């Protein structure tokens, strides 16, 4: 059976199990398995009435919801190709993607999203609201799925950090293989667990990794609980008390800072125990722990850390799962200190979201785990990671030249530099395209240095290194942070680095880079070329008058 048939079979047994929940301010909206199947059947009947030929594209523009999931599965089951779009992205960017893939229909959750597209594109395809599809009428028995393994079932647009986004085609076989792999890793995590698994979710399902975890949850019969208001994430995490959930590094950084801030406000004995335990933990990682450190950690593990865990995420958590961008190793170790394992994964949309995922039995901080089943990974020229396996996409939509640039003899060229240890665990060093090549010829991956400076300046929002073709590195720091604090942080970092990696100048910009301003991709990655162009004058100033460091 393919992934869709597996999901439908799971939803039918038991049919009365709650499969999905939307967490809202005033209520929790639930859908039992049978109800979700009914909604999918209703949506399939609507799509069938449109008489679309197999392989036509249907764009899906909506925030996460039960209806989003039903619409997504219905489009695929009808032999059509779903094109999930990020509902918070600028209408002009969404229109560019839709012009690229020419959808026959645009399915929108509400009038505001529909009207935003209409205002930007007068020749948009027919726009259908969810309310026109889901009317709650009783539907006939569901039809067989019209999906073969080789069929393209989704086109997911990549972030486009250095140019126009490309449509990544994924097949039913890609998805079927990936769900088997993710479920196998989760089996290791949930070993011995009884009852229905609880999965909290807040990331947009228009992104590949987010979509895969949702489909995996449905296939496993988990209770999938969706946050619908980002301002309520902290409350919803506690209320849902999940077994695990998918994260991006930015949230884990915010959670870590929030704990520190709350304990500093509380003060007293608890703050003292916490501070001593943190210092002891750092010394333990450096191999310098002593007997008093062991005592401090033992007391905190008995008295302080369990309370932090419960207030932060509830009492059921087995692990946090993190992907999409590199996670600072200090942050990962911080959660380990609290007794919360952090499992990292690595992959791209072109690899059906994943290439590696930590084995819960042997998760190494700072690494992203071994390759998933059936996937081969090796290093090519310039230590670039190349990947081969049933998870590799067949190509970009209508871009044969772009496809040929990244696919060679079945190997996908990721554009990432990495290394593998003797146990098979991978470490990601950075993007090859992000490499800064100084005038001296030194090649520098900016991400590790950016992470170091960001950790040293807690009030900073982002750090971006520049210096291509220049004599030294400079840093752009965003957020409300004083120049003196940045200077002091650089003074602490530079002695730890070789001379060519030291930061010699900086510029503080109070306004953070954002998706809305076009300087971040839809999933929060830096658009470095755009930033360099936007701050061209400020960058020139850093090299015209070098600041002493």
Structure, explained:
By secondary structure, this protein is α/β, with parallel strands linked by helices. The protein folds into 3 domains: 3-171, Rossmann fold; 249-315 and 318-432, ANL, N-terminal domain (Rossmann fold); 435-544, ANL, C-terminal domain (GMP Synthetase, Chain A, domain 3). It has 19 helices and 25 strands. The strands form 6 sheets. The chain has an 8-stranded mixed sheet with strand order 2-1-10-9-11-12-13-14, with helices on both faces. Strands 15, 16, 18, 19 and 20 form a 5-stranded antiparallel sheet that branches. A 4-stranded parallel sheet has the order 4-3-5-6, sandwiched between helices. Helix 4 (91-101) crosses helix 5 (111-120) and helix 11 crosses helix 12 (291-303). 43% of the residues are buried. The model has no long low-confidence stretch (mean pLDDT 92).
Provide keyphrases for this structure:
globular, 25 strands, GMP Synthetase, Chain A, domain 3, 39% helix, 3 domains, 549 residues, alpha/beta, 5-stranded antiparallel β-sheet
């Amino acid at each position: 059976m393919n992934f869709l048939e597996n999901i439908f079979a799971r939803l039918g047994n038991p049919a009365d199990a709650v499969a999905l929940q939307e967490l809202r301010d005033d209520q929790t909206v639930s859908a039992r398995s049978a109800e979700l199947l009914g909604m999918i059947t209703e949506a399939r009947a609507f799509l069938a009435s449109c008489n679309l030929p197999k392989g036509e594209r249907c764009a899906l523009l909506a925030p996460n919801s039960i209806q989003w999931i039903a619409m997504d599965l219905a489009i695929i089951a009808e032999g059509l190709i779903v094109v999930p779009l990020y509902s918070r992205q600028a209408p002009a960017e969404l229109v560019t993607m839709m012009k690229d893939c020419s959808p026959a229909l645009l399915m929108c959750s509400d009038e505001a999203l529909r009207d935003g597209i209409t205002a930007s594109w007068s020749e948009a395809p027919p726009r259908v609201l969810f309310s026109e599809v889901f009317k709650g009428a009783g539907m006939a028995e569901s039809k067989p799925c019209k999906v073969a393994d080789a069929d393209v079932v989704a086109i997911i647009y990549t972030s486009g950090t250095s140019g126009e986004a490309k449509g990544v085609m994924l097949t039913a076989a890609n998805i079927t293989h990936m769900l088997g792999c993710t479920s196998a890793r989760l089996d290791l995590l949930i070993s011995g667990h009884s009852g229905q698994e609880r999965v909290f979710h807040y990331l947009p399902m228009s992104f590949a990794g987010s979509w895969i975890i949702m489909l995996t949850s449905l296939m496993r019969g988990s209770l999938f609980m969706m946050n619908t208001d980002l301002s309520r994430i902290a409350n919803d995490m506690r209320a849902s008390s999940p077994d695990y959930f998918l994260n991006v590094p930015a949230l884990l950084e915010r959670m870590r800072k929030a704990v520190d801030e709350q304990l500093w406000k509380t003060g007293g004995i608890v703050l003292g125990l916490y501070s001593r335990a943190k210092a002891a933990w750092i010394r333990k990682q450096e191999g310098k722990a002593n007997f008093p450190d062991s005592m401090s950690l033992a007391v905190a593990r008995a008295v302080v850390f369990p309370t932090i865990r419960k207030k932060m995420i509830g009492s059921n958590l087995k692990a946090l799962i993190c992907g999409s961008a590199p996670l600072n190793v200090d942050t990962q170790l911080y959660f380990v200190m609290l007794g919360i394992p952090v499992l990292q994964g690595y992959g791209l949309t072109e690899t059906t979201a994943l290439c590696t995922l930590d084995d819960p039995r042997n998760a190494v901080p700072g690494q992203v785990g071994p390759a998933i089943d059936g996937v081969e990974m090796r290093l090519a020229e310039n230590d670039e990671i190349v990947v081969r396996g049933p998870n590799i996409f067949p190509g970009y939509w209508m871009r044969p030249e772009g496809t040929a640039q990244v696919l060679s003899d079945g190997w996908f060229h990721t554009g990432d530099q990495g290394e593998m240890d003797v146990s098979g665990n991978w470490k990601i060093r950075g993007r090859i395209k992000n490499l800064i090549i100084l005038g001296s010829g030194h090649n520098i991956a900016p991400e590790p240095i950016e992470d170091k400076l960001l950790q040293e300046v807690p009030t900073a929002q982002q750090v971006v290194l520049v210096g291509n073709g220049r004599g030294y590195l400079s840093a752009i720091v965003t957020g409300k942070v004083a120049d003196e604090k940045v200077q002091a942080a650089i003074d602490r970092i530079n002695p730890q680095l070789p001379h060519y990696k030291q930061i010699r100048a900086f510029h503080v910009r109070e306004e953070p880079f954002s998706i809305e301003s076009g300087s971040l991709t839809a999933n929060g990655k830096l658009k470095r070329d755009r930033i360099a162009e936007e701050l061209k004058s400020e960058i020139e100033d850093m090299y015209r008058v070098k600041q002493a460091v």
